[in-house]
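Bug report (template v2)

What were you trying to do?
Predict the complex of my protein with zinc ion.

What happened?
Run completed; filing so the output is reviewed.

Input:
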Amino acid sequence: MIVVLCGEALPLKAGLIQHLVQKSFYLRSGQEFDGLEPDKNYVVDGPASVPGLQPWRDRGSLIVWVAPNSQPAAKGERVIANETPESDAWEVLNQWILAAMREQERPGWDEYFMKIAQVASMRSNCIKRKVGAVIVRDRRVVSTGYNGTPRGTRNCNEGGCPRCNSLASSGTRLDECLCSHAEENAIVQAAYHGTSVKDGILYTTFAPCLMCSKMIINSGIIEVVFNVDYPLNDTSFQLFAQAGIRIRQHRLS
Ligand SMILES: [Zn+2]
Ligand SMILES: [Zn+2]
Ligand SMILES: [Zn+2]
């Protein structure tokens, strides 16, 4: 989170900044808004007046003015009167920060696992499409996979799969493709390590094809969540329905 302390350079403001630095907040000057990392806490020695504050407002900062008691706060902003004793001011600031931290949004489970699948897809070496999958049990990732040619063979993007590297139109000559699919690889990786995927949930960035659907069913996975669907996938959906496997879409935001 970002806490911006605004107002004249008074001892109280400097004291509060110091408190936050001691709490492992990284200190930034009022113009240093580039390169901020979302997983870190920052305290900003903010401007004495409103101009220059907008970039910090845009970044969802907690804005606190150390100012004369009479200064009205803008919506969502806070004021600490500059005659407040430092220990009292720190107490108040601390409460505001804790409240703001509690309100900070974090991704839900679907978003979290689908994003991990998306990161996995970036390791794909297939030139046709990049797909990633993760298998989750008890809200823990037990396996991941992405599509590409089999282990120890030439990568698809280095010419490994003649079908992917030819101009075959989509849906044709699928039996000639040498690339394993992401869902297939996630199931196979679990087998490689001797990990059961029974009762697991599979997250995939692309709805599973018929071949993967059959593997998913027989591996004991009970639910499939996909990001992007594709047309002509009815057979997979019907098979899942018949096998009693839930399938649903979670579009990444
Ligand atoms: Zn390929
Ligand atoms: Zn291929
Ligand atoms: Zn597949």
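What did the reviewer find?
The helical segments are 11-22, 54-58, 86-103, 109-121, 162-165, 182-192, 210-219, 234-243. The pocket of zinc ion (ligand 3) is lined by residues 181, 183-184, 208-209, 211-212 (CB under 6 Å).
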